[in-house]
C-alpha cells in the first residue's frame, strides 16, 4: 500500500481536494484507493507523531493506527490530506516559509516508516500568500507573524530543500495554486493514481468558484460536444473560456500590509516566477505545470 499525503499549503486548496475525493469514494474504492474522512486521522496522526518523538513506529503501532483510519480491510493507496501537516497557520511565516516543515514531515513519516509515501503540495505567490495567511490567523500581527522575515527572501524552493534534507529520497509533487483551474484534473489523478477509465465527479469544482455560471455551462457543453480531449487542448479551452467568463472580483486580492507597495508586490511576483522555475528543475520534485 502507498500513502499519498496532501500537505496544503494553507490558503491554496482550502479542503476542496479532500471534499472532491470524498464524494468519489465509491469510484475510487473500486480501484483500492481509500479516502477516509479527515476526522479519522488528523488528530490521531498528530498525537501519534508526538508520542513517537521521532522514533519509528513499531509494526503493532502501525497496525493499530491503520485500523483506526481505515474501515476497509485492504487498500492499494491511502489518501490523507491536512494543510496543518507542515505547520499550523500561526507558524507558517515564522522567519521563513514553514520553518519546521522538514522536521514535521519527518515526524509524520515515522508513523508508517515501511510504507511507500508520496507528498503533494500547492504553492502560492508570496505576494498573496502572506496577506492570506495573516487573514486566516484571527488577530494576527504582521510583525509577529513574520518574525523578522523579509518578504523578498521568501522562497518555496528553500522550504522544499529543507524537506528533502530532513527526508532523504522524499517524493514531492508540486504545482502553483494560481494554475489549479487549468490542471485540477491532473492534480486529482496525481494524488489518487486512479485509472484513466475512472469517471471523477468534481473536475469543475475550482472553475465554479471563479467563472460565471453561464460561462461554465458553455464550457461544459463545449467539452461534451468535442468528446475526449487531449490534456493540452482541454487546458487551452479552459484558458480561453476563463479569459472571457472569469469573475474579476474572484481573481483579485486586496493587499494592505505595512510597507507594502505595488512595486514590492511586482518584485515578489517576479521572484516567485523565478523560484517556480528553480523548483521545476529540482531533483526529486515532480512539477505539474499547465
Structural summary, described in words:
The protein has 290 residues and is of the alpha/beta class. The chain has one domain (2-199, 260-288): Rossmann fold (3-Layer(aba) Sandwich), CATH 3.40.50. 48% of the residues lie in helices and 10% in strands. It has a six-stranded parallel beta sheet, with helices on both faces.
Helix-strand layout with pairing:
Blueprint: E1 2-6, H1 16-22, H2 25-29, E2 33-34, H3 42-52, H4 59-69, E3 77-81, H5 101-109, E4 116-123, H6 126-136, H7 142-146, H8 156-166, E5 172-176, H9 180-192, H10 207-210, H11 213-226, H12 231-245, H13 248-251, H14 262-280, E6 285-288
Parallel strand pairs: 1-3, 1-4, 2-3, 4-5, 5-6
Helix pairs in contact: 5-8, 11-12
Poorly predicted sequence stretches spanning 5 or more consecutive residues = none
Average of pLDDT: 94
Specify the structural class.
alpha/beta
Characterize the largest beta sheet: strand count, sense, and whether it forms a barrel. Answer: 6 strands, parallel
Gap between N and C termini, in Å? Answer: 30 Å
| Percentage of residues assigned to helices | 40-55%
Count structural domains.
1
Short note summarizing the structure:
The protein has 290 residues and is an alpha/beta fold. The protein has 14 helices and six strands.
Descriptive tags:
10% strand, six-stranded parallel β-sheet, 6 strands, Rossmann fold, single chain, 290 residues
Amino acid at each position: 500500500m502507498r500513502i499519498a499525503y496532501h500537505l496544503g499549503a494553507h490558503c491554496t486548496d482550502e479542503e476542496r481536494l479532500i471534499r472532491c475525493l470524498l464524494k468519489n469514494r465509491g469510484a475510487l474504492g473500486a480501484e483500492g484507493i481509500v479516502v477516509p474522512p479527515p476526522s479519522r486521522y488528523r488528530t490521531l496522526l498528530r498525537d501519534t507523531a508526538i508520542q513517537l518523538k521521532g522514533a519509528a513506529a513499531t509494526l503493532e503501532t502501525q497496525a493499530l493506527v491503520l485500523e483506526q483510519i481505515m474501515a476497509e480491510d485492504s487498500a492499494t493507496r491511502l489518501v490523507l490530506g491536512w494543510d496543518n501537516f507542515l505547520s499550523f497557520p500561526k507558524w507558517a511565516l515564522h522567519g521563513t516559509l514553514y520553518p519546521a516543515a522538514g522536521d514535521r514531515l519527518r515526524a509524520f513519516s515515522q508513523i508508517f516508516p515501511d510504507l511507500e509515501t508520496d507528498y503533494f503540495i500547492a504553492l502560492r505567490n508570496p505576494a498573496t500568500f502572506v496577506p492570506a495567511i495573516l487573514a486566516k490567523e484571527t488577530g494576527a500581527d504582521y510583525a509577529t507573524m513574520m518574525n523578522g522575515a523579509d518578504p523578498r527572501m521568501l522562497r518555496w524552493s528553500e522550504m522544499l530543500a529543507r524537506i528533502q534534507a530532513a527526508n532523504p529520497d522524499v517524493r514531492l509533487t508540486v504545482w502553483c495554486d494560481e494554475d489549479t483551474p487549468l490542471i485540477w484534473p491532473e492534480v486529482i489523478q496525481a494524488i489518487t493514481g486512479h485509472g484513466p477509465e475512472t469517471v471523477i465527479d468534481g473536475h469543475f469544482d475550482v472553475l465554479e468558484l471563479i467563472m460565471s455560471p453561464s460561462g461554465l455551462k458553455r464550457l461544459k457543453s463545449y467539452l461534451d460536444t468535442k468528446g475526449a480531449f487531449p490534456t493540452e487542448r482541454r487546458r487551452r479551452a479552459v484558458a480561453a473560456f476563463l479569459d472571457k467568463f472569469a469573475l474579476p472580483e474572484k481573481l483579485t486580492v486586496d493587499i494592505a500590509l505595512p510597507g507594502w507597495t505595488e512595486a514590492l508586490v511586482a518584485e515578489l511576483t517576479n521572484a516567485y516566477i523565478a523560484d517556480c522555475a528553480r523548483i521545476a528543475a529540482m531533483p526529486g520534485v515532480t512539477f505539474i505545470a499547465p
